[in-house]
Amino acid sequence: MELNVIGAKALTVSDDVFGGEYKKALVHQVVTAYQAAGRAGTKAQLSRGQMSGTTKKFKKQKGGGARHGDYRAPIFVGGGVTFAAKPRSFEQKVNRKAYRVAIRSIVAELNRQGRLKVVSELSMEAPSTKGMIAKLAELEVKGRVLLVSEDATEALYLSARNIPYIHVVDVLALNPVSLVGSDFVVMTVDAVKKVEEWLA
């Protein structure tokens, strides 16, 4: 199949990568796993047995209260937590092949919906927010835009930094969450070739 390149001749790409079937369940699984892997998992609480404090009887025997164990019990303010959270990993296993199939599925769906724009190059001579706004207006993209370059330069990154919802990444940093969360994805021809080589 062919991809339209803005300002240049069409680019021939693989049907499997840019025209494949959209696998909704797999995409959901991979996106969830990616987000889960980003969780710190460092939450920690003290259980009843880990609280500092005395186990001494704190009231007299008669008149109520003394038969309760101690102030470290969960029912008292400042006591231990009943099911205390402990540090853990939220990582979910996703096979490398399944991950690539999910990315391929997302890219194909973006292309089908006309949300994938391909340009011959994506570069800035010097950092310029105004220049980046003008470039985005030429491409007719709005909302959350992901700019994918084969090698994102510092000037390109700085130009987009002050514009809300505009993100610049290179091909190696491409991930399912950024692709799914973008209204438009703008890729350079070289980036498309690298993505095709990666997902083939």
Automatic annotation (TrEMBL):
Superkingdom of the source species: Bacteria
**Pfam families linked to this entry:** Ribosomal_L4 (PF00573)
GO cellular component assignments: ribosome
Residues covered by region (Disordered): 45-67
Q: Which InterPro entries match?
A: Ribosomal_uL4, Ribosomal_uL4-like, Ribosomal_uL4_dom_sf
Q: Which UniProt keywords apply?
A: Ribonucleoprotein, Ribosomal protein, RNA-binding, rRNA-binding
User: Does the entry feature the keyword Ribosomal protein, yes or no?
Assistant: yes
To which protein family does this belong?
Belongs to the universal ribosomal protein uL4 family.
Binding partners and assembly = Part of the 50S ribosomal subunit.
Q: What does this protein do?
A: One of the primary rRNA binding proteins, this protein initially binds near the 5'-end of the 23S rRNA. It is important during the early stages of 50S assembly. It makes multiple contacts with different domains of the 23S rRNA in the assembled 50S subunit and ribosome. Forms part of the polypeptide exit tunnel.
Q: What is this protein called?
A: Large ribosomal subunit protein uL4
